[in-house]
Fold each of these.
Amino acid sequence: MSVCWTGPQLSRFPVPRWRRHPRHSLSSLCFPIPCSSNSRDKLIGQVQKLTTAPMETLNERQFDRLEHDFITALHILHYHRVLDAYGHLSVRNPLMRDTFIMSRSMAPALVSSADDLITLTIDGAKPTDTSNQNQLFSERFIHSEIYRQYPSVNAIVHSHCQAVLPFTINRVRLRPCIHLAGFLRPEGCPVFDTRNHEGMRLGPAHSENPPDDGSGSSGLLVKDEFLGRKLAYKFIDTKTTVVLMRGHGFTTVASNLQNVVFQAIYTAQNAAVQKEAIIMQNAAMAVVGTFPTGADPGIHFLSKAEATAASEMCEDTVRRPWALWQREVEVCPLYQNSA
């Protein structure tokens, strides 16, 4: 029996995950143990397999975690009434950036495992597994066209949230009025209206006068690449993170899953606060008739500087609400997540 430098006995001393990167040499894992030459060679071989594991292996583990977080995000959005039976979430696939992940067409609260998730191509929003062809959201083109045009976008939420809907059908602009919604455009969120594009979608013959019988209508839905592309154009200003959709809802984009969930929730909360402020202001006007001399009758929205500072603060602290929201859905028996 000789004493040699070799790797740890893996069954008793698992190698820390961070040490499995190729940049960590074999010597960084070694310590002296007595062993025969055959055992030594076997152990060295086992350690070498770990220390030379390709980065794809680490990414696959991270991908498994992403699937779990994706389902958690769906549950959080339902718990906070941003999504109900309708609406959807997507995330860009970090292993193949020309694809993205959505759930199959089902209620977000009921998504429970990786089997409920589908990978789609950004080009054409087609499933990479053709057996999933009949399980797709009709509005997946919202996601594919935004990902196509904006490489920095990695997560998208499309919601029909009731609190936001009134701002999609009148001239009152949704603007940031609470500090947690500093990501909203201070001058107001743009509104996408399918009516402005129906004629062009049907071709040159109808570009100016779409048919009046509704035969060419999309039903306010973004069900093809053309309308998806037109919606994506609304995000051309890099400061635009939320676009409202007339009579339909809103879409928000972000660089990661946690941020897009944060934005979706606080878009809804900002809309609720702004609506109440408008009601309060109008009620005061009805009772008093006019505001006292020198009083400011307007709603005090965030300035551009305030919105920017508030948005930066929220990005730095987004993990705090995420941890709370994650726990809320973990303890609720409605939500199951085996991914």
Note: Confidence is low (pLDDT under 50) at residues 1-34, 43-58.
Amino acid sequence: MRFISLDTSIIVSFARLFEQSSSVYRKPSHSEISKVLQDLAIADLDPKIADSGLSKVKRVEFLLYTLTSEDIDSTKGQDLFFRLLDLLRGYGGFRADSDNYVGKEAFENFKYVLKSSGIFIDDGGNIIPVILDNLTESEYEEALLKYIRRAKKGSMDAALLVGTSKDLLEAVSYHVILKKMGTYQQKHFPTLLGLAFNCLGMTTPVDKGEFSHVERMESSFYELGCSINNLRNREGTGHGRPFLPSIADHEATAAIEAMGMISEYMMKKLEQSY
């Protein structure tokens, strides 16, 4: 399973890729979209049932909004997004010389919106890994903050940075260390998190002396962060789920929310350190 945080800007800009040209009918067709909905067992949500004249843009927009609402399994929204993206790519939607080309303005806008969320799409319509060098420092921080906001709401797609094996807390820790120390190649998570805490003047359990209430809280954050990291699914089992299959949904949600809370605290401390 591939994950992208489907917020309003991404949904709107993606739906615009299905805008019809006045001179040529671009594929995929409505019937092909219907086939995807049937394959995903979500045809009952199709707004075209009630409005046969609905445009592809409005149809895709409605479906993605509906499938990312809180009371619906968010994986269906992910499935639909990537199936439709695959259809566009298959029909040459990202080739400028194709009759089905989505259009330069729509594609450039979609790329811009994705980049602002820390996601990259190449000229062939392929989602590619998030690489720190591809973003300016301010863009990278903004991308992290967007993931943090999603994580605090318990969104499963916020736990892992798209296209990477890093979870949110790892990414924030690396960012802190890079800002404070420069390049640092530490793979051992407890050491990585401990160094990031140290860079921010935060307390960890190895510190000596009497802890204030805030220091005790920070020390607990460290232990919580390490515990969450131990729940990570690194083998790819669970079909893209960021946690081991043995972790219940409510436990995974709590872990993601905690990940967001700790990450936000670290980013605030980083901001205050300058």
Note: The longest strand covers residues 120-121.
Amino acid sequence: MSDVNTHLFDTIDRQNRELPASTRRQLVKGTAAAMGTMGLLGFATSRDADAAVRTGEANNIETIAAVAATAEVLATIVNTVGVEKLGSRMDATTRRNVAAAAQQEKNHYELLTSSAVGGKEVTKTIYVPDSIFASPENLLGALVVGDQVFINAYLLATTVFARQGTLSGSKFARYTAEIMATEAVHRALALQSLGRLGNDRVYAKFSQREDVPGLPTTGKPGFFRILDAVATLESVGFGFGKPGSVPGTAYNYDEVAARTPKDPDVNTIAIA
């Protein structure tokens, strides 16, 4: 019997110590039977379960922080330039939401690269497919795709950080969970501006296949390795420090971030 099960059964026995010993034994037996029926007893004692939660080298903390910071470079650029190029063709609500997203992505980047986290972007130069800025619809569709990649990546990061079992690990897990929640809002608002149901998911998608029709990633599964976030973005034409697979334009983060809009109603934090 595992230490987990021993602790659980001892707790049941202790919390019911006023009952006769025979009754307490029946409670323990009943709990064990219920856990077995649900498959939980096997999970708690399985070596495979222990192995399944080990973090592979591909998902080390340094790589996750680097990929996340670089993704926020991309997101800051796409949202900022998107408003600049297409804002006059958007309705007022969509324009404000995309501009606010640019501000939030910039703040995410600043947090990830701060001394509190210590992330370092791989590059500050992103090649963005020219087609993305051809119309508001193209931009919004790209945001739906990109934000889902970020949701997947931050869910993965939350899992990895939580597994550290340390105070700093739990703090970083909270950071990434908070960022993931914001990315989910960005995705929902982009879908809504496309005339689709924005509030379309009961749970944020991790490894499941993309079920939104008409996207470059429709039908494709999520990922378990953080570098697959980069591969997914490259597959839709983005280039990181080099030209992508489709015609595009290079944008530098420092130049773009200097003109990222600020909405006074955005609730944010100061990054030291």
Note: The beta strands are 125-129, 239-240, 248-252.
Amino acid sequence: MTTITTWNKRLKKVYTEVKEIEPLLTAAIKQYESMYSRGLKRIMQSNLKEIMVGVPKEEAVDLLGPKLLDVFEWDDILPVEKYSKFNALIWAKRIQRELNQQDEVIRYYRNRLWRIHSSLEKLEEAYRKNNEKKKVRKVDELLYQVTRLILLRPYHVSDIAKVIELSFFPMTKNEFLSLLSIDHSKERAEEVKSHIDSIPAKVDFNTFCHFVRDWVLEDENNDLFFTILSHTNVEAAVQRYDKYKLDQAK
């Protein structure tokens, strides 16, 4: 039979674990935010560099203005003779891959918190049955803290999808396909081929979104553009689901 002493030991262990996780999760989220911010800056640099291709340096300085010097290093945005107009998209993929890796770290801590939340619910029930009011209050305080941490999300100043939309250059069908990691699985072979055949000769941003987000042409293990374009909706859905689970647990 489980005793009060055993429950108290479990509570102490849970308390220690929450105390350990909180700074690690907070640091992981701050790191994500920093990576996101640097990534947006890198995409914007690529856009500016493309816009300024071929412009004389002196003229570029006048066009860009001194305010941009507060945000970018001149060497990062001053014009070059040649620069791919798709570099911003390539950078977006690279940045999203790094963000996905960091998100794995955040989810690791969040999953640990969900397990702790479940343990605390069981402890609360046990203490209530034994009229341990002080312990119930302690558990409730921990539940509040754990809930707050579960719902903690990185803050985004802007959205990568919005940035690439504002700077999107129309492209040919072949250029579009060259940017994607196409799903070559046997299960979707006919479906993907059908979608590819229907891609128009010229691809604007809406077409780009349609084939990436709606028809999901990318391989599921490398669907970085899909993640970028769906990020806001997916994150909102995850947060709503987390809130729903927490409400159900009350």
Note: The first helix runs from residue 4 to 51.
